[in-house]
Design brief:
Elements: E1 13-19, H1 27-30, H2 32-45, E2 49-55, E3 59-65, H3 73-90, E4 111-114, H4 118-134, H5 149-154
Antiparallel strand pairs: 1-3, 1-4, 2-3
Helix pairs in contact: 2-3
């Protein structure tokens, strides 16, 4: 069996990519309310901060910060995936089940990266917020509804027009 190397850092911040098994499905946005419920329920049981997040049709990206004495993000993702899967099935969505009764909704693994410093943190938050534009869902970051970008704008941390021009078209500043 393959042993996946995780970097447990109590109180650490992590970047995640979590993907549906069938990349043609759009369940994460068509049933975003069920995903939000799964996240909230998991946060109540095992607290963590969602620093940034974007939900796209078939995958999501997030930056989380865990409590100072806790590094168990794996259990949290297990709970979120399980809660969403059960809720999706109960809502009437025809979800396939494997021979052992598990729902075949999510890819079994996810990408995780331990945030190293403030620059790495800022880079991943920007990546998250710009991702709907990157994938062609919108032309302006502000036009994608399922993003923490809107929380950043309300808090005055980003202007509403941030990311409104595709990266390739942005003029380079001296020294970049």
């Amino acid at each position: 069996m393959v042993r996946y190397r995780r970097n447990p850092v109590p109180g650490g911040s992590y970047f995640f990519t979590v993907t549906l098994f069938d990349r043609k499905k759009d369940w994460l946005v068509t049933h975003v309310n069920l995903l939000q419920d799964a996240l909230r329920q998991t946060q109540r049981m095992q607290p963590f901060e969602i620093d940034a997040m974007v939900v796209l049709p078939d995958h999501l990206h997030a930056v989380w910060t865990l409590p100072p004495d806790d590094a168990d993000f794996a259990q949290r993702w297990r709970a979120i995936k399980s809660r969403f899967s059960r809720a999706l099935s109960k809502s009437g969505v025809p979800v396939r089940q494997s021979a052992d009764g598990a729902y075949d909704i999510w890819q079994p693994r996810y990408w995780e990266h331990t945030i190293r410093d403030e620059r790495d943190y800022a880079h991943h938050v920007d990546y998250i917020h710009y991702n709907p534009v990157k994938h062609g869902h919108v032309t302006r970051v502000a036009d994608w509804p399922h993003s923490s970008f809107h929380r950043y704008v309300r808090a005055g941390r980003l202007p509403v027009d941030w990311g409104g021009v595709p990266i390739e078209d942005k003029p380079q500043r001296y020294g970049e």
